[in-house]
Structure formats: structure tokens, C-alpha cells
Amino acid sequence: MKKYKLVIFDLDGTLIDAYPAIAEGINQTLKSLGYPQQKPKGIKKSVGWGVERLIHPLVKEKDYPRAVEIYLKSQETLLPKMAKLLPGAKEVLKKLKGEGYKLAVASNRPSGFSTFLLKFLGIAQYFSFVLCADQINSYKPEAKILSLIMEKLRVSPGETLYVGDMALDAETGKRAGVKTIIVLTGSSSKAEVLAAEPFKVIKQLSRLLLLLNKNTLL
Length: 218
Description:
By secondary structure, the chain is α/β, with parallel strands linked by helices.
């Protein structure tokens, strides 16, 4: 009998690479408002905390509402052109679903774009539940998003794994009482991830299957 019944995934940097679309959208927004361009690497470090954390530090308070509006509009065009699945993502989801695991998404990305990306990239069918921070007004690392998913799917923290890409995700898992696996394909460095003390760290998402199949996640 499997110890774990539910695997919850973060989206950006874990299953999906949308960093080029995000960086391009931010720089289009800044240019339209007369602000200097930002390096993609710097923008990437701000991804994962929600739109406010991404945009607010880059513009004056008076320009913030308009900046959000321009940025979100840019993503309608850029995401279909530039977003892609990370290597192995679809295969991992298909395998886990086939083995009877319940799968869910917990993301700080706006819900409209999350839903679009899951459908556009062909992985929506694998998930029993998708929950985004803007739907509950509670952003990771607050534990509420994970707790609500577990409650909805009637699975205990001890039967749940959370897979993310940031130190932020490790903290979220701790607060929810869930073991967290961090994959090094996102915006946190290995040093940042290790400092957050997740349960496991893997280089690629495909390694998750090996961990589960070998029963090394005790």
C-alpha cells in the first residue's frame, strides 16, 4: 500500500517554464511607463511570490495599478508564444495519475493564467483540483492553500507530498505539515533551497518517480 495518496505541485519552475514570457512582459510594462529595463535573471528571482511582489518594487506607487494592468494584458499574448512544459513534466504526471495518486496544483500565479496554461500545455486532465492564491487571498508561504487542497481531496498531511522549486515552497510545506520535495529547475539556487531544509532535493522532476518507486520517501 502506498504511503502517499496526494501529490501537490507548484506551477512555475516546477511543471512550467514561463520565465521568458514573464521577463518580456515586465520589460514591456516598464518601457511603456518610462522605466528602465530589468535583466531577466533579476526578474526571475522575483517570480513565485505573486504579481504584487513581482511588479511593486519596480514602479512608483502611482503607477502600480496601471503597471499590473499592462503586465497582465501582455501575458495574454506572450504566454501562448513562450511558455512550455519543463522536461519530463507530462510523463511524470501521466505516470503518477496512472498509479492512482491524486494530483493537485497550488500556485501563487493568477488563477486565470494558471487554468489557461494547464489546458494550453495539455496537462489539465491530470489534476483533481487546482487552487491559486488569488482565489483565497492567501499567498504561499502561508499554509492555507495546501491545507484547503488536502481538505477538499480528503487526504491527511502525512499522506501528502508537495513538489515545488523555491525555498518559499519548502517553507509552505513546513507550515502545512507536509513533506516537500524541491526540484532545482526554478528561481531559487541550490544553496537557498538547502538552507530552507526541504525533505528532499532533486535535480529533475523525473527523479520524483524514482523516489516513489523505490519507497525512499519515508
